[in-house]
């Protein structure tokens, strides 16, 4: 599936351009942050801590304004950052930096798993539709049209309404191994959201796979294989599937970015179930914009960096492999 | 007595790609007489298209004309630019590379026009053929309505006018009269039902029809020089003959000058008065048709004649070389062995560029040869030491002289797809392109 | 003729799609756990009353009967009644359409007005600073979640510098326009503009970025095509080449992409309306989902589905006009 | 003034609390605020921006507090209610208890906005419309009128209400829920009354609706033929804005004069702004964590009490609620009949909590707390802090997730042994003002929202419903509350404060019942 020529194309494009390098560095950093969150985090992200006056610490290097009640009168005071909290604390005293790390876990997990579900659903659907063509194709494409008629966020909202949030707790290996004392013993994965982002994006994969299948179905070697008595299943699996992988890989990369945006939108709207999510954090911080600007701002930077880096890598793959893809791409938010 | 209409001196056109500098055309001289058909022939990648495009200023980034002069003979133009650019004028000749781009552009369509290789990709697919020809007519109409000196300025058409034209027909660029003239032109090039055909889109035309339409479009500006870049390559053999006939007839009728670019010696033989053979950005042999076909010196020319697939029509109106006859009889090609040369500056070296493929390469070939006079007419010149001495085994280079290293370099430059490395603007562009082409 | 047939075919497909949407929604509704009656009445209300309400709403009927009823009602434009407010869903949907439409159109205008010139500049001045600027902008633009962008705009332009309001829609555009046309009082229009500015930019940024990107790469692709050189050789003005030929052909594929992206626009509207308290369909949908007000959820989504289908037919029609080859295929 | 005399000094009734299960402060409602530059400023016009306003014009078909605020000036209440919760005559001039009910004497000069005279028939119809399923609509208010059996017009100005309960109980009900509608007018319409224009209203109140946009805006102007005193306000605008920050902004920019439900984060901004201020009052809405006693580990009283010891109510109140709340000591809030003043809230005591967990036998338990988001004041923050405090116990691990409110609501009515979601945050307003409404649905056997199965307490509650004697009944209820504190069926958190932003020069004080009466504004 990845020939030498493709590989050398990839290498050449990578070497020639600065952007994929930036993308790779940033994404690797985010991946490492997500993976080693329990080790890197300075605090348990769930630990609330509070002060009698409800103050939140600002990020290092900044100060914030707060209020103190003296004799029943509110007085403005300046809050200094705490060296304990690199990026400050949020409205319930949780460490913003640690939550940023854990938020990366949620985003990347949902992004990859959700895209995985979409691939698993969409690719076979598209291959079958494109390979057999005719009425089967017509019928299946009408189903795809119905899916496309739902704006993905709207459909996702409806599905979350149906299924609830179904968070799944994934045990944390670092904590289990005793490497991260005091960190949460499991990471909550917003199950419905993961499922839903898969359910609303699979159709893009179906379209791409269908296009490939239609192109390959009439290739001579496929005709030859058929004349040699290979079954449809064999042909689909041995010839059509491998050939459709390149565009699927490119689309999947781009879709991870768009799924991350979709997840963050759902969390922002309060439908993800977990609070360890960038989108949720932004929503929580929205009410505190006047004094605590950083609560919303910092996780947003996380999302933008993650999505940009994935998009950069997606662009690189697309330019190197040059598949013919039309898809939702970019962002669904 | 014939007069020159175009003189090219020392033209160098280079492409500055990420892989390095590509010398598509180097130090090239050319002289075209008014009313003649001059042919440039060569393999893909020899620089013949770039030469043609350089002449009519269609070289696009990353390509650039880096050196040379292009003298165009036009009294009116000379007069119009003499005041502002005296250094660019020599009698009735104007050095096009010394005048502002604006002036050069003003020559497009009316002084020079061009027929492209692939008619189907050379028409805008979303406008009717009639509209596109009418645009070319409009250029001519506006030009002839204005004196030479102000012509360059009238070529402007503001964005504001374009926007207005969507609501005000009077602001449209193309006038009704031009549309009518376009239909006449379609008729002239032999398109049946031109009125209906004018309203059709390019995809509704057959290839041959479309090439006729392209010729009509090129004629619209009533150009002094028509550049025909592989005008028949994309067409079926039978259609090729028709199109060549058409060009022939039109040339006879109008007396216009044609610069014909082709890789097909058959076409040359049938159309041209004089011919230049290009290799690696240079003209390696030039002269009258007889000079090149009968008295050719350069082994490359010989090789080319050997690779003629078919000389259709009354090709044998002049006796061709024995070797040229052979393939016709044998029905098989005898292509020149070896690869198209690398035009990358750093890989070119200072030798005869053909030496690595030349069956008669000698030690003398290791320095770059000048142009020698050849036998036959006085027009005959050839850039090969064989014009001065016979080939001797004694001085021959060993067969593996250029070894693997050199060859590998050439391969590397070659397109990864293995397709021809024709350094045409588009291709050079797309090499650098790389990051573009988002498709969502 | 070909065009009429084409439209008819697409319309029939569209009806099929809408039917599919309704069916999927009913499927979802059927598997949704929980008792809608819980959401309508006081939890303390006794079982007998609940049963009566269930009957009144037809919830005691088998799901296929409800489905049939719904389809029948839908044909005559009846979307049922909201559980929460007892109002006709059709009314509740229609009354929110202007706000969302205003927002969507304003965002589209923002996007087109910024993106096309930006894309053209970027596409014609490759590798110049303007191109780098536009390319970076579009990369960041498609990677930024619009709710965050909205919040950042509020933080900067509303909270910090107090230039724009934080949200809300004090006056409807059609009312403001009417006031202006009848009394020449421009204040309402200005108020409307003042309030819609941030939401429109928020919703429009993704599209601005996307169209810039598409226009840029489309122009580059297009400029690489032989017909452009051929057109240049004709000697027609540069403006005409750039806009009448290149940009026009660039826009053709972009139009279909935008049709497909309409869903993103609607999704974006939901989020943007939430951030700015813009009283459109999106905000109503969120409320409906929070209350699991199925008739309303269904009504809004069916409406959106129908609009989507209609707009896409329109897009296809435009596409067919611009790209005549479609009709022949 | 018999009704008023019946009120004990310590017995303050809650006439109406906002919403059965609280109010939405988050995503629920929408925006819309008038800043029409045409309008002159002045004391004659007042703009009130609430988190939500009516989305349905039927006065008998809702029980949400903010809705009453909008509708009461139009469909006036039968009785005036003082801030001290005393009933005073309004449309009803006099009322008397009879053997089998109560007799209301009405004014004879009341007219509807459409010009019809109000009759006793209209009043009787109004009550029957709500309580009799055969007449009119399924009203949410029916629950509040549970003990009234029938209403009948005796003559033009007299209505007889039948009931079989203690007179004081019945009085709470009919005095709270009477909003007269015009029988003839109503019967011409589909029910409940819907519509989205000013024509959809026809009350007897001092104001009539001149503009109405559901969910967005209602504009009122004085009704010229009103029987009572002329109103002081010439125009009243109710706007909806679902975001606290939006409401605060409307107040600060002078677009609005009174805004409700200001969250703590927006308080400093209003404090700083000129000419406006914060006014607050305790409300009677509780927020607590339900622990279903039929599900492990919550079937252990020790465990449930441990949870109460683990949580620091006061810390949560001062931090997540900015201090706008009061810790709960028992299932019902202070001010409700039957509240036991001798009980103290649980104080956080981690050691004791851990020890109780050990005793319960559920050491090492792993539980998950669910919370809605945006339903109650900073609900998810509150729950997140509580969950974290429980998680801090050595021998319990507690995760936290948010869940859509419909899921929480389903869990709430799923029975005391439903395993699906046994631990969640929810709120409850005791809308009848009597402990019974806060106790019976949760703690009697097979009740709609049963969270605790305890036969003894269940029987005590049922018994209390039949006790005729006021003080004896109060004692019984106080005893039940005391026992429930020990049983700890919930993690008792807090009762919220209502926080308003008000123009400084406006004479108006918030009420514990969260009503905004236009006639109390000067």
Automatic annotation (TrEMBL), chain A:
UniProt xrefs under Gene3D superfamilies: MetI-like
Coiled coil feature spans: none
Cellular component terms (Gene Ontology): plasma membrane
Membrane topology according to the record: Multi-pass membrane protein
GO biological process: transmembrane transport
Domain ABC transmembrane type-1 residues, every copy: 104-314
InterPro entries referenced in this protein's UniProt entry, alphabetically: BP-dependent_transpt_permease, MetI-like, MetI-like_sf, OppC_N
Cited CDD domains: TM_PBP2
Transmembrane segments: 21-41, 108-134, 146-168, 188-209, 293-313
Superkingdom, natural source: Archaea
Pfam families linked to this entry: BPD_transp_1, OppC_N
Entry keyword set: Cell membrane, Membrane, Transmembrane, Transmembrane helix, Transport
Cellular localisation: Cell membrane
Principal place of residence: membrane
Family: Belongs to the binding-protein-dependent transport system permease family.
Name of the protein in question: Binding-protein-dependent transporters inner membrane component
From TrEMBL, chain B:
InterPro entries: AAA+_ATPase, ABC_Ni/Peptide_Import, ABC_transporter-like_ATP-bd, ABC_transporter-like_CS, Oligopep_ABC_C, P-loop_NTPase
Annotated compartments: Cell membrane
Annotated Gene3D superfamilies: P-loop containing nucleotide triphosphate hydrolases
Principal subcellular localisation of the protein: membrane
Gene Ontology BP term (one): peptide transport
Keywords per UniProt: ATP-binding, Cell membrane, Ion transport, Membrane, Nucleotide-binding, Translocase, Transport
Ranges of biased composition (kind: Basic and acidic residues): 318-328, 407-416, 424-440
Signal peptide residues on this chain, from the entry's feature table: none
Membrane-topology descriptor: Peripheral membrane protein
Residues covered by the ABC transporter domain: 6-305
SUPFAM superfamilies in the cross-refs: P-loop containing nucleoside triphosphate hydrolases
Gene Ontology MF terms in the entry: ABC-type nickel transporter activity; ATP binding; ATP hydrolysis activity
Presence of keyword Transit peptide: no
One of the record's GO cellular component terms: plasma membrane
Catalytic reaction(s) noted: Ni(2+)(out) + ATP + H2O = Ni(2+)(in) + ADP + phosphate + H(+)
This enzyme's EC code(s): 7.2.2.11
Disordered: annotated segments: 308-341, 407-440
PANTHER family: NICKEL ABC TRANSPORTER, ATP-BINDING PROTEIN, OLIGOPEPTIDE TRANSPORT ATP-BINDING PROTEIN APPD
Subunit structure: The complex is composed of two ATP-binding proteins (NikD and NikE), two transmembrane proteins (NikB and NikC) and a solute-binding protein (NikA).
The protein's name: Nickel import system ATP-binding protein NikD
Organism in which the protein naturally occurs: Natronococcus jeotgali DSM 18795
UniProtKB/TrEMBL annotation, chain C:
InterPro entries for the chain: BPD_transp_1_N (IPR045621), MetI-like (IPR000515), MetI-like_sf (IPR035906)
Keyword Aminoacyl-tRNA synthetase listed: no
Membrane topology: Multi-pass membrane protein
Keyword Ribosomal protein among record annotations: no
Taxonomic superkingdom: Archaea
Record PROSITE patterns: ABC_TM1
GO cellular component: plasma membrane
SUPFAM superfamilies the UniProt entry points to: MetI-like
Primary location recorded for the protein, binned into one broad class: membrane
Residue ranges annotated for the ABC transmembrane type-1 domain, each copy included: 97-319
Swiss-Prot/TrEMBL keywords: Cell membrane, Membrane, Transmembrane, Transmembrane helix, Transport
Pfam family, one: BPD_transp_1_N
Membrane-spanning segments: 12-31, 103-124, 136-159, 192-211, 252-276, 296-315
Compartments, as annotated in UniProt: Cell membrane
Coiled-coil intervals, chain numbering: none
GO biological process: transmembrane transport
Assigned protein family: Belongs to the binding-protein-dependent transport system permease family.
Protein's UniProt name: Binding-protein-dependent transport system inner membrane protein
């Amino acid at each position: 599936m990845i020939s030498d020529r493709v590989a050398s194309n990839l290498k050449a494009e990578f070497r020639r351009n600065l952007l994929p390098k930036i993308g790779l560095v940033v994404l690797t950093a985010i991946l490492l942050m997500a993976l080693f969150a329990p080790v890197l985090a300075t605090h348990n992200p769930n630990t609330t801590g509070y002060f009698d006056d409800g103050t939140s610490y600002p990020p290092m290097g900044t100060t914030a304004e707060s209020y103190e009640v003296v004799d029943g009168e509110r007085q403005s005071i300046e809050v200094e950052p705490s060296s304990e909290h690199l990026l400050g604390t949020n409205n319930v005293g949780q460490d913003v930096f640690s939550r940023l790390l854990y938020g990366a876990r949620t985003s990347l997990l949902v992004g990859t798993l959700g895209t995985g579900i979409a691939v698993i659903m969409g690719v076979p659907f598209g291959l079958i539709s494109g390979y057999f063509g005719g009425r089967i194709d017509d019928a299946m494409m009408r189903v795809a049209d119905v899916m496309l008629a739902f704006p993905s966020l709207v459909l996702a909202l409806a599905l979350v309404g149906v299924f609830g949030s179904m968070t799944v707790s994934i045990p944390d290996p670092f904590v289990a191994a005793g490497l991260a004392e005091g960190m949460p013993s499991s990471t909550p994965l917003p199950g419905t959201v993961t499922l839903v982002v898969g359910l609303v994006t699979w159709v893009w994969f179906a379209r791409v796979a269908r296009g490939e299948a239609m192109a390959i179905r009439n290739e001579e070697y496929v005709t030859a294989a058929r004349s040699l008595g290979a079954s449809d299943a064999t042909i689909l699996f041995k010839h059509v599937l491998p050939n459709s992988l390149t565009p699927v890989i490119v689309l999947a990369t781009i879709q991870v970015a768009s799924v991350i945006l979709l997840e963050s939108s759902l969390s922002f709207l309060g439908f993800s179930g977990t609070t360890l999510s960038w989108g949720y954090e932004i929503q929580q911080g929205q009410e505190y914009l006047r004094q605590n600007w950083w609560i919303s701002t910092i996780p947003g930077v996380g999302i933008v960096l993650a999505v940009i880096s994935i998009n950069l890598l997606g662009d690189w793959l697309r330019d190197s492999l040059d598949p013919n893809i039309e898809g939702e791409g970019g962002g669904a938010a | 007595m014939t007069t020159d209409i175009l003189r090219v001196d020392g033209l160098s056109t280079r492409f500055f790609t990420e892989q390095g500098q590509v010398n598509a055309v180097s130090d090239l001289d050319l002289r075209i007489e008014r009313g003649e058909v001059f042919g440039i022939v060569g393999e893909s990648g020899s620089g013949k298209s770039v030469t043609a495009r350089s002449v009519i200023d269609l070289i696009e980034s990353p390509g650039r004309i880096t050196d040379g002069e292009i003298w165009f003979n036009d009294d009116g133009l000379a007069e119009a630019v003499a005041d502002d650019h005296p250094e660019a004028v020599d009698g009735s000749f104007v050095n096009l590379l010394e005048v502002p781009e604006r002036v050069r552009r003003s020559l497009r369509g009316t002084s020079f026009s061009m027929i492209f290789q692939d008619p189907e990709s050379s028409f805008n697919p979303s406008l009717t053929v009639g509209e596109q020809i009418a645009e070319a007519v409009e250029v001519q109409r506006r030009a002839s309505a204005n004196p030479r000196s102000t012509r360059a300025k009238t070529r402007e058409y503001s964005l504001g006018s374009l926007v207005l034209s969507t609501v005000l027909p009077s602001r449209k660029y193309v006038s009704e009269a031009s549309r009518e003239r376009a239909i006449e032109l379609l008729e002239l090039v032999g398109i049946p039902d031109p009125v209906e055909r004018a309203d059709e889109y390019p995809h509704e035309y057959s290839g041959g029809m479309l090439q006729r339409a392209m010729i009509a479009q090129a004629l619209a500006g009533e150009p002094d020089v028509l550049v025909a870049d592989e005008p028949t390559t994309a067409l079926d053999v039978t259609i090729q003959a028709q199109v060549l006939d058409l060009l022939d007839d039109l040339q006879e009728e109008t007396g216009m000058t044609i610069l014909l670019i082709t890789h097909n010696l058959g076409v040359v033989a049938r159309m041209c008065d004089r011919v230049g053979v290009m290799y690696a950005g240079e003209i390696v042999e030039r002269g009258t048709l007889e000079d090149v076909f009968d008295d050719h010196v350069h082994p490359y020319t010989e090789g080319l004649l050997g690779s003629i697939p078919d000389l259709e029509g009354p090709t044998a109106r002049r006796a061709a070389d024995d070797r040229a006859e052979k393939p016709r009889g044998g029905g098989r090609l005898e292509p020149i062995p070896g690869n198209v040369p690398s035009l990358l500056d750093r890989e070119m070296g200072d030798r005869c560029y053909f030496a690595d493929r030349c069956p008669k390469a000698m030690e003398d070939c290791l320095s770059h040869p000048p142009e020698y006079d050849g036998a036959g007419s006085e027009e005959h010149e050839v850039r090969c030491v064989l014009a001065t001495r016979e080939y001797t085994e004694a001085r021959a280079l060993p067969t593996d002289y250029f070894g693997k290293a050199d060859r590998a370099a050439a391969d590397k430059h070659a397109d990864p797809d293995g397709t021809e490395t024709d350094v045409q603007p588009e291709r050079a562009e797309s090499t650098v392109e790389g990051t573009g082409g988002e498709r969502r | 003729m070909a065009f009429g047939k084409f439209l008819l075919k697409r319309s029939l497909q569209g009806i099929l799609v809408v039917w599919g949407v309704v069916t999927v929604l009913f499927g979802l509704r059927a598997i949704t756990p929980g008792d809608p009656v819980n959401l309508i009445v006081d939890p303390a209300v006794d079982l007998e009353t609940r049963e009566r309400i269930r009957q009144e709403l037809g919830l005691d009927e088998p799901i296929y009967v409800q489905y049939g009823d719904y389809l029948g009602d839908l044909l005559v434009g009846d979307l049922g009644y909201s559980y929460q407010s007892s109002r006709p869903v059709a009314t509740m949907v229609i009354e929110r359409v202007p706000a969302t439409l205003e927002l969507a159109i304003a965002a589209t205008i923002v996007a087109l007005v910024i993106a096309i010139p930006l894309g053209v500049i970027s596409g014609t001045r490759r590798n110049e600073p303007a191109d780098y600027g536009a390319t970076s902008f579009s990369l960041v633009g498609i990677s930024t979640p619009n709710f965050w962008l909205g919040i950042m705009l509020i933080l900067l332009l509303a909270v910090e510098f107090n230039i724009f309001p934080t949200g809300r829609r004090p006056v409807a555009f059609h009312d403001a326009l009417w006031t202006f046309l009848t009394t020449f009082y421009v204040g309402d229009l200005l108020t409307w503009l003042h309030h819609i500015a941030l939401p429109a930019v928020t919703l429009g940024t993704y599209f601005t970025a996307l169209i810039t990107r598409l226009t840029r790469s489309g122009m580059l692709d297009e400029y690489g095509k032989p017909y452009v050189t051929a057109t240049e050789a004709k000697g027609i003005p540069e403006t005409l080449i750039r806009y009448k030929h290149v940009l026009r052909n660039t826009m053709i594929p972009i139009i279909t992409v935008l049709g497909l992206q309409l869903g993103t626009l609607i999704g974006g509207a939901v989020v943007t309306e939430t951030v700015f308290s813009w009283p459109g369909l999106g905000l109503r949908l969120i409320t409906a989902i929070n209350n699991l007000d199925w008739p309303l959820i269904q009504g809004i989504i069916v409406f959106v589905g129908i609009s989507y289908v209609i707009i896409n037919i329109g897009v296809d029609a435009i596409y067919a006009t611009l790209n005549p080859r479609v009709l022949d295929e | 003034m018999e009704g008023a005399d019946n009120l004990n000094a310590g017995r303050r009734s809650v006439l109406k609390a906002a919403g059965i299960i609280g109010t939405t402060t988050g995503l629920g409602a929408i925006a819309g605020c008038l800043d029409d530059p045409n309008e002159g400023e002045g004391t004659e016009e007042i703009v009130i921006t609430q988190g939500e306003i009516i989305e349905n014009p039927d006065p008998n078909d809702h029980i949400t507090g903010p809705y009453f605020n909008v509708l009461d000036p139009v469909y006036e209440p039968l009785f005036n209610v003082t801030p001290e919760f005393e009933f005073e005559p309004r449309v009803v001039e006099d009322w008397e208890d009879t053997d089998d009910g109560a007799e209301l004497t009405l004014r004879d000069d009341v007219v509807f906005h459409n010009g019809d005279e109000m009759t006793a028939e209209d009043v009787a119809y109004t009550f029957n419309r709500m309580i009799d399923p055969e007449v009119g609509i399924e009203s949410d208010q029916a629950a509040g009128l549970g003990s009234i059996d029938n209403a009948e017009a005796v003559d033009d100005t007299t209505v007889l209400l039948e009931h079989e309960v203690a007179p004081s109980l019945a009085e709470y009900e009919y005095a709270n829920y009477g909003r007269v509608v015009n029988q003839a007018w109503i019967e011409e319409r589909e029910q409940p009354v819907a519509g989205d224009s000013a024509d959809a209203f026809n009350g007897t109140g001092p104001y009539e609706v001149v503009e109405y946009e559901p969910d967005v805006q209602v504009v009122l102007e004085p009704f010229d033929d009103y029987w009572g005193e002329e109103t002081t306000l010439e125009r009243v605008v109710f706007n909806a804005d679902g975001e606290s920050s939006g409401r605060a902004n409307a107040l600060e920019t002078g677009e609005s004069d009174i805004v409700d439900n200001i969250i703590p984060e927006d308080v400093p901004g209003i404090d700083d702004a000129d000419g406006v201020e914060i006014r607050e009052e305790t409300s009677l809405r509780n927020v607590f964590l339900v622990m279903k006693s039929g599900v492990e580990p919550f079937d252990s009283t020790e465990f449930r009490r441990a949870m109460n010891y683990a949580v620091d109510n006061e810390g949560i109140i001062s931090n997540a609620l900015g201090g706008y709340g009061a810790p709960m000591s028992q299932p019902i809030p202070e001010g409700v009949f039957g509240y036991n003043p001798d009980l103290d809230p649980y104080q956080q005591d981690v050691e004791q909590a851990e020890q109780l967990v050990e005793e319960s036998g559920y050491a090492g338990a792993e539980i998950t707390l669910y919370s809605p988001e945006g339903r109650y004041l900073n609900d998810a923050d509150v729950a997140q802090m509580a969950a974290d405090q429980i998680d801090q116990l050595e021998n319990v691990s507690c995760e936290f997730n948010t869940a859509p409110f419909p899921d929480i609501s389903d869990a709430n009515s799923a029975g005391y042994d439903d395993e699906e979601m046994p631990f969640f945050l929810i709120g409850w307003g005791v809308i009848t003002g009597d402990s019974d409404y806060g106790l019976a649905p949760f703690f009697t056997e097979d009740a709609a929202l049963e969270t605790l199965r305890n036969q003894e307490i269940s029987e005590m509650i049922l018994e209390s419903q039949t006790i005729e004697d006021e003080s004896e009944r109060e004692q019984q209820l106080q005893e039940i509350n005391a026992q429930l504190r020990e049983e700890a069926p919930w993690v008792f958190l807090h009762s919220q404060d209502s926080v308003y932003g008000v123009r400084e020069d406006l004479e108006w004080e918030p009420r514990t019942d969260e009503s905004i009466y236009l006639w109390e504004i000067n």
